[in-house]
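We recall that each integer encodes one residue's backbone shape. We quote one record:
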Amino acid sequence: MRLGISALLFNLDKAIELCREVDRINHIEVGIDNLDECIKLSKYKGEFEKLNLSLGIHLPMELNSCENIEYIRKSWVDFINKIEDGLKDLNIEYFNMHLGYVISERLYKNRIKYLDNSVSFFEELLKVSNKRLSIENTYSKSGDFSNIGYICDDFEYIFNKIKSQNLCFCYDTGHNLINNSDYISNLNDRLEIIHLSDNNGIDDSHLGIGRGILRENEIKRLLSVNAKYLILEINHNHIKETIDILDKIKKGV
């Protein structure tokens, strides 16, 4: 399991410096929002190679795989393909994204319709290249719009429809603390990425481990999962402290 951290372009230099200090960190997941950011990220290719860092991309939060307007949904597919092309000089191991969002009343009336939109979205996206996609559990506070993908059933539905092994699951502990569902038991065969963070069960504050309510037995369970990447999606100032805590917990696994 590769140990990674998350970063955006504005704090990527700090993230790379942290990787120099802690040589056990060998992966970075970088958030990309716009096409022009591909050029900026590609300039770091030499730094990634020097430190033997693998690279994942977290796609924009605005992406909406369940968008009901077909033209807009297809434009998101085109956007992701252009992101992939813009990063072709880097060895991107996966592209990670949330499923999206729907007007709450419409979602409650016909959830399957929007999940089918997502299925169509991923089928179209997986046609173009051999890119690896991961879809991540989220949470929803159910205002006028609701996120989709805050219950395990949403992902089981999609994976039952799409058999391609190029679509995998990313389990986010912080999101699960807010909207709990048993993703590990039900999606273990598709789980390849873990986003590890802590919080108070209300706000997705990306705290270091031990600073919120994430229980030790849950962390032990995660450390025994056969995932490819464990990404510390937390404040960079909490990274070293969290690694020390994980080491202590792992000794008891």
Remarks:
- The domain at 2-250 is CATH 3.20.20.150 (TIM Barrel).
- The chain has eleven helices and ten strands.
- The chain has a mean pLDDT of 96.
- The chain has one domain: 2-250.
